[in-house]
Amino acid sequence: MFKYFLIVLVCWVFDDATAEFDWKPNPPYKPFDMKPFPFTPSLKLDKQNDTASSGKTVTMNGDANYNVGQQIFYVYDNQFFKRLLYNREDGSFVTSDSSDTHRLYPYKLTWNKARQACIQNGGHLAIINSESEEMILSQMLQEKNLDTAWLGLHDLYEEGDWVTIMDQPIQNTGFTGWTNKWPNEPDNWNGDQHCAILIKKDGMDDVNCKSMHYYFCEFPA
C-alpha cells in the first residue's frame, strides 16, 4: 500500500512542477523568406596611365550575370570628379593635385592671348586625344558653370585643314568630335572661324579667333 502511495506522490510532484512552465511544442518549421543577395564583383584599380586614354579604370572580375570574364569601365560619376578636380589659388581649376595635366582658367582671352598665357605658365593650349579626355574637360566646364573654352586647334594655315598647335593633323589626335548643336560643323560661318573651342556637353566648335573665351592649358605629366 505504501509503495503505491509513493508512486502516486512522485507523479503528483512532477506534474505540479511542470505546471510552472508555459511549455508548448515547437511550432512547425517554416523556411526563411530569403532573397538572393545581389552579385558584387571584385574591384581593382588599374594604375596604368601611360596613355591619354588609359587613365584610372575599374576592372570587374567574375562570371555571374556576365558572358565575359572581364569588363573594363571608366568611372565618371559626379562624386569621382569632385574628388578629381580642385581649385588653385590663382583661380584655375585642375584635374588633380599630383599630375597637373589639365588646367581651366576662368579668364576670357582671345585664342592667341590664351596660347601665349599657356606657354608662359609652362604648358600649351589643351589638345584632346580621346573621348575620355573630352569628358574630363567638359566636366570641368560644368563644375565651374562655364560654357566654352579654347583648345589648341586651328585651321589658320588653310581653310578646313585643322591642325594642333604642334602642327599635328586633327586626324592624328584621336579625337575629332565636332558639335552636333549646329549642322555641318566646323562650318567657318562668316568666313572667319579658324580656332576651336570646347562647348560644355556638346563637343568642339569653330569660332572667330579674336572672340573671347576661357581656356584650357595642358602640362607635361
TrEMBL record:
Signal sequence coordinates: 1-19
CDD domains assigned to the protein according to its UniProt record, in alphabetical order: CLECT
Cited Gene3D superfamilies: Mannose-Binding Protein A, subunit A
Pfam families: Lectin_C (PF00059)
Domain C-type lectin: 97-218
Presence of the UniProt keyword Nucleotide-binding in the record: no
InterPro entries (alphabetical): C-type_lectin-like, C-type_lectin-like/link_sf, C-type_lectin/snaclec_domain, CTDL_fold
UniProt keyword list: Signal
Protein name per UniProt: C-type lectin domain-containing protein
Species this chain originates from: Cardiocondyla obscurior
